[in-house]
Amino acid sequence: MRNTLLICLLCFLPAYLAGSNSDTLQVQDTVLSRTFSEIVITANRFGSVGINTPEAIKVTDELSVRENQLRTAPEALNISPGVFVQKTNHGGGSPFIRGLTGNQTLLIIDGVRLSNSTTRYGPNQYFNTIDVFSIEKMEVLRGSGSVQYGSDAIGGTIQAFSHQLRTTDDPKWGSSILTRFATHGMEQSLRAGINYSNRKMALKSGITLRNFGDIIGGDTTGLQSPTGYGEFDYDLKGMVMLSPETSLILNYQNVSQKNVPVYNKIALENYTINHMDQQKRKLAYLKLNHEMNNGIVKSVTATASYQGTREGREMQKTGSEMIRIEDDKVQSIGFSVESVLKTREIWSGMMGFEVYKDLVNSSRTDENLNTGGLTEKRGLYPDGSVMTSLAGFTVNTIDLGSWIFTAGTRLNTYVIKVDDDNLGATKLTPSAFVGNLAILRKLDETSNLFVSLNSGFRAPNIDDLGTLGIVDFRYETPNFDLKPESSFQYQLGYKYNTRKIRGEIYIYRNQLYNLIVRKRVEDQYIDEYPVYQKENSDRSYIQGFETSWDYDLTDSWTFHADLTYTYGQNITHNEPVRRIPPMFGRVSAEFNQKNWLMNIEWVAAAKQERLAQGDKDDNRIPEGGTPGWNVFNINSSYNWKFITIDLSLRNILNTDYRYHGSGVNGYGRSLFLTAGIDI
């Protein structure tokens, strides 16, 4: 309770200063802060100024990620207000937005869907298949995204952006190398890159080698083994100017992770072997953009993409002579065309269409280690399943000066074909029509107030329809008769921006309908696991409060505080919604002068004791709930010419802590050192 009160006080202190500082209110900002003056893309699928965007959206850039030495793409989101990152294993990381994660939170890379037809409900590892060193920034859009991007954005949308390429008047070469080490052998990373540009083209490429050792937890936890794994990534992005108005961009990314253990399975469920090998993702896309200087149509962009994911799993129970080898592959082909429209200074918008097609191949082989015999069985999903999505969409903004109106709609149809050897062939054709509306009122030169309404949906995917096998602590069986989930979220938001103080407050409620949930089949067990099947049966709501403030005391000193509270209730069963994060927040003080920087941060979470029955059955959650915790970190950075050195001391007090729902505990007291050269 004392922690909660202190975080609340620190979060609202800047708001009090904002209201009491009359001099600040009288000064017009000619230079907006980096927080709100940034151009954000995800909210509208075209650029808009952050403070004038009537949605809860936050940007995390690569500089912040590097200064805090954040290990992976999911862990980088820990500094984004309103995001809670659960980790089933060290090679995972599942961001929660407004109480939802997994296939209820949409993941995107450069406008291309990362979420696919096997993205499962609940925590997963998919966002960790993005190399954090290949990212220029990430945008988190809380509470919106179905109109702009389609299925799965019930909780919100997270979009990662690769580095933007720019041409130069003269030919220019550049290169970079970065190394990182952590105490106890918890990390050894190497990143090398090269770039080139001239008047007609730009090119950037990189290669990443990483070895993560087992986590050393705080206090009495100590070594958590096995948790470490290896990773090898490479990426290439190029841009060619076909004319002054037309550009062609090619991007290729390849991420490969090996021997990624699922620690809680080995520690708590009597497994000798339980790991993912391999976890792979490769993405290739071509993007053609043509800018226009006359008429309503300002630009047209066409994107063709291919994304392939592979998840291999090996499992062996202690004392068993049998090892199970599962392999799931998803090939996703996408194509989209969208136009940015504008007339004078009042109306701007975009419209477009997109199509995605997923092909799923899934297999399972049981190997007898004594005899060497192999037995082929049905994989986790029906082999050869196909899911196709076709959509048309539009988002529009009317700017009347003191008032800004935003509205959009999307029509999305699906064709899902599942052919199961035992249950036969099934074809589903679900569809969804969704819309959003927001009204923003500028109160003065420094602040605005807005209200937004967002309807969302999640189409049943192949993971929902056809899963057969062990998932977490249960055994799932297929159900081919499922309908889309739907949501209706409304929020009230306030944004404030001056030279010294920047802040935002959001209050929201999300109504959830036809939720696809796992239902236990009474008195049935397979391989000693209780049997579950999915069905559309639940109605719930999630509501909460989010606030974030920055205060520049001087040119060198900046203070930050954010706080998130989430409450979820399952109306159907009169119990809490599963996996709702506790109240959590972050407070930091940063000193930045000339070539060096230092910040100290306090990250805290309250105890979560509001548990659904599914939480109580989950062996990752302690009996009675996940304890609250406080962690203190110090981060520092020094730049000299083309050399940068970052040093972080994590968990100064060596606290034993765990993010609610995680299968591993956090780092104990440890040092992280990064050295980089850019020439």
What does this structure look like?
The chain has 679 residues and is mainly beta. The strands form five sheets. It has a 22-stranded antiparallel barrel. Strands 3-8-9-6-7 form a five-stranded mixed sheet. The radius of gyration is 25 Å and the shape is globular.
How do the strands and helices of this protein lay out in sequence?
Elements: H1 2-20, H2 22-26, E1 39-40, E2 48-49, E3 56-61, H3 62-67, H4 73-76, E4 83-86, E5 94-97, E6 105-109, E7 112-113, E8 135-142, H5 146-149, E9 156-162, E10 172-182, E11 188-197, E12 201-212, E13 215-216, E14 223-224, E15 229-243, E16 246-258, E17 260-261, H6 263-268, E18 271-291, E19 297-317, E20 322-343, E21 347-368, E22 374-378, E23 385-399, E24 403-420, E25 424-428, E26 431-442, E27 447-458, H7 462-466, E28 469-471, E29 474-477, E30 485-497, E31 501-526, E32 529-552, E33 557-570, E34 575-576, E35 584-593, E36 596-605, H8 613-617, E37 629-640, E38 643-650, E39 670-678
Parallel strand pairs: 6-9, 29-32
Antiparallel strand pairs: 1-2, 3-8, 4-5, 6-7, 8-9, 10-11, 10-39, 11-12, 12-15, 13-14, 15-16, 16-18, 17-18, 18-19, 19-20, 20-21, 21-22, 21-23, 23-24, 24-25, 24-26, 26-27, 27-30, 28-29, 30-31, 31-32, 32-33, 33-34, 33-35, 35-36, 36-37, 37-38, 38-39
Provide the residue-averaged pLDDT: 92
**N-end to C-end Cα span:** 50 Å
Radius of gyration: 25 Å
Q: What is the number of E strands?
A: 39
- Number of DSSP helices? 8
Q: What's the story with the biggest beta sheet?
A: 22 strands, antiparallel, barrel
What is the helical fraction, as a range of percent?
under 10%
Structural class by helix and strand composition: mainly beta
Overall, the morphology is: globular
**Unreliable runs:** 13-17, 19-34
Relative strand content: over 45%
